[in-house]
Amino acid sequence: MSMCPNVLILLTAVGVLLCYHGFFTPGLEIFASQSPMTIQAFGVPSYAIDYAPLIWLDVNEKYFPSDMYAQVANTNPMVNFTVVDATQSPLNLDNLNVLNLFGNDGKDVFLTSILDVDTNPEWLNGVVPDASGKTNDATSCAIIVNDHGSGMVDVFYMYFYAYNQGNTVLFHELGDHVGDWEHNMIRFRDGVPQQVWYSQHGNGEAFTYKAVEKEGKRPIGYSARGSHATYATAGTHDHTIPDLNLPRGLIQDYTSKGKIWDPAKSAYWYTFEAETSSFHNVDSKSPLGAMYFKGQWGDEQYAGSDPRQDDFLGFYKYVSGPTGPQDKQLNRTKVCPDNGILCIIRDSLGP
């Protein structure tokens, strides 16, 4: 049966729209057929985009991926709990590294919440990803490419959250802090993914690319409820012993398939030159100052006399915020950080 050209064009357009909005592609299938970026990131190898991880947020997550600039806008830079005069007003992600002029080359500078965190300021909640996995109006990821030469390239996918809710141990919530940086790193050889690192509480786990769960080419990660430690599997994870992920224990994280997040859809893009420890933005929208800032992206640990603080056997409810991407060993020898802990590269999704 023949069809009028205008009608055919209309039906085709409707079909494309339906597919785009996921009506014909339940679950994760929508992500397999479309690039994580709508604009090509010049200077970034295509495989860094093609293999960008997808992250499942826990079904009971309360603190979602967050906008990096919102962290600056809702905080004051402090050294020893005293606001520093940054001389540039207002601070933003482009000039944030001016804070390195203060407090031990910036290392003692803390981006401190203007509002009392015990009042649960809304900006700490972050942004819930939409149906496509994008955090709208929030750039919550920094993607950094380090080309080691001889075909070896590391791509870091840095995930930012405005707040970290710690674990509950014997009825005490411990390890809360403003600001949270977690990451995956994929090591490529001649454009082919070899190994994947999942950061967890100062250390983490490494797997062969073949071993990890994937959607198409893209590795899957699971962000732990509250703490945002990044795991390769869903379920309960005890992290009492570094680099050992047991299903039960004293200090547990929980992961599940709640909301899917596609970090590469709202990301800044950089390359990193190891010899000079320098960053280069691959477009004018990716601010450099934030990458060079050496301080902490949250409050300094509250004193024991602070009524908000809880001291349980030398462990505290509120601890200091984290350092940023520049302090995450971007020029590693192995896929694991060089921290003295044995680097185990697992070829199956075991503990």
From TrEMBL:
It holds the Pfam family Vps62. InterPro entries: Vps62. This is Vacuolar protein sorting-associated protein 62. It comes from Oidiodendron maius (strain Zn).
